[in-house]
Each structure stands twice: as C-alpha cells, then as structure tokens.
Design goal:
The complex is a heterodimer of chains A (about 110) and B (about 120).
Chain A lengths: L3 E4 L2 E4 L5 E11 L4 E6 L6 E5 L3 E2 L7 E14 L9 E9 L2 E5 L3 E5 L1
Chain B lengths: L2 E5 L2 E3 L5 E8 L7 E7 L5 E7 L8 E3 L7 E6 L4 E6 L8 E9 L2 E5 L3 E5 L2
Classes of the chains: A mainly beta (about 110), B mainly beta (about 120).
C-alpha cells in the first residue's frame, strides 16, 4: 500500500501570504491519480486539483499543484479568508484497487 | 445538479450491524462508480471501499481493515448504493461519505452519515 505523508501538519499564516503544502509518497504515484482536496468543518471534501496539476472547475487560479513521482506540492498564493481549512492529498492505485489519503495539513489564520 | 444523499446512520452497540444508503440524483447513476470514505471524529479521511457499475459486473473492492465486515451493493432501480457494516466496533465511529469515483478521485460527495458505535 502506498503511504502518503503530508507536511507540515499545521501551517499558520496570515491572509495574503503564500501557503506551500507537501505530499510525499512511499512509492511512485501515477500523476493522473494524485488529487488534492479542501475540507472545511462540517463539510465534505471538495476537489481542488486533480492529475497532480489540473485545477478543478471553479477553483481560483491562486491554487496550483505540481510534482511527480513521490513528491507533490499544493501552493495557495495570496491566502484568502475562505482558504483556511484542512487540505488532503489522495492517490489511487489499481494493483489492488485502493485509495490512500495523506493525514492532512491544516492551514490556520495566524 | 448532481446530488448524493446518505441516510441510515445512527447509534449502534458494538457487535451490531448497520446499513447506510447513498441515493443519487442528477446523474446517470447506473454508470457511476461509487466509493465510500469515512472520517473518525477529528481525524483524517479513510477509504472504505467502492463498487463499479453494472457494466463492470458491480465489482467491489474493500480496504483491508474492513474487508471481512463490510459489503457494498447497489440497486440502480432506486439510484442507491448500500454500505452494509457488520460486527461494528468503536473504531468504526465516524462520518461516512459516499462519492462518485472518476479517474480515481471523488468527484461529487454527499454530506455524510454519522455512525456512532457505543455501548
């Protein structure tokens, strides 16, 4: 099973600052199957980035994803108040079929 | 508008069983692959399992920690997928989300069903 480790666990930043979130995989991940989600309290996750770097429909361009193989990054440029939330990376493997999530990074307002 | 609605959550005792439903609208439900993801209180997301469409023989896959206690099935005549959980443990407490799986990611999500396992 591929293990995803996110860092840091918590990021305390002010509005307007840039957030850089890391997701490291224990084995190489097919970029097609690397997804970033945002989750706010009491809500379901929503897709921000899929295919490691493609923004989902309606996601502002301050969100960007990059990386390949075992190292992936989510960057949030110029944090807005609504961006303070928990972010998860997730990968899909098909041998055997399964999903794994990182443990999450909480982006807090400083 | 695509909507998924979970129902059937509740309070159960350890060792009991529970079936949660996920009903969809606004999509070609019979073609959808449905995945279940759970979240323990204050914790992260955990994949539970998935069911493919009838055209893929409704093939199911489960996470190792629940494989022996969980069954996912579907009734496309009701646009509904079921998560049957047996021999529930306190560690199974959490919110259970259903989501449409597309290229290995959760595209549309329900609001979740709360399952509490406690004596």
């Amino acid at each position: 099973e591929i293990v995803l480790t996110q860092s840091p666990d918590t990021l305390s930043l002010s509005p307007g600052e840039t957030a850089t979130l890391s997701c490291r995989a224990s084995q190489s991940v097919n970029n097609i199957f690397l997804t970033w989600y945002q989750q706010k309290p009491g809500q379901a996750p929503r897709v921000l980035i899929y295919g490691a770097s493609t923004r989902a429909t309606g996601i502002p361009d301050r969100f960007s994803g990059s990386g390949s193989g075992t190292d992936f990054t989510l960057t949030i440029g110029s944090l807005q108040p609504e961006d303070f939330a928990v972010y998860y990376c997730q990968q899909y493997s098909d041998s055997p079929p399964s999903w794994t999530f990182g443990q999450g990074t909480r982006v807090d307002s400083k | 508008e695509v909507q998924l609605v979970e129902s059937g959550g509740g309070l159960v005792k350890p060792g009991e069983s529970l079936r949660i439903s996920c009903t969809g609208s606004g999509l070609a439900f019979s073609h959808a692959w449905i995945t279940w993801v759970r979240q323990a209180p204050g914790k992260g997301l955990e994949w539970v399992g998935r069911i493919k469409a009838k055209t893929q023989n409704e093939e199911t896959h489960y996470a190792a920690p629940v494989r022996d206690r969980v069954t996912i099935s579907r009734d496309d005549s009701k646009d509904t997928v079921y998560l049957q959980m047996n021999n529930l443990k306190s560690d199974d407490t959490g919110i259970y989300f259903c989501t449409t799986e597309y290229w290995g990611r959760g595209e549309y999500w329900g609001h979740g069903a709360l399952v509490t396992v406690s004596s």
